[in-house]
Design brief:
Helix content is 63%, strand content 0%. The longest helix is centred in the C-terminal third of the chain and has 22 residues. It is globular.
Length: 52
């Protein structure tokens, strides 16, 4: 059994999961993929600012 470090009910994790699952990786250029990855990487800091 593997324990999770994350709260699986976390809205941020749900948002990240949604972003990833709705990507069509077959149509992304490498630059588009890097830009999307950067967007996803910045989600935690955007959410902290929005809730403050």
């Amino acid at each position: 059994m593997q324990l999770s470090f994350f709260n699986l009910e976390d809205p941020l994790l749900e948002q990240i999961k949604k972003e990833i699952t709705h990507l069509d990786i077959n149509t992304l250029t490498p630059v588009d993929a890097l830009m999307k990855l950067n967007e996803i990487k910045c989600l935690p800091t955007k959410n902290k600012k929005a809730t403050s």
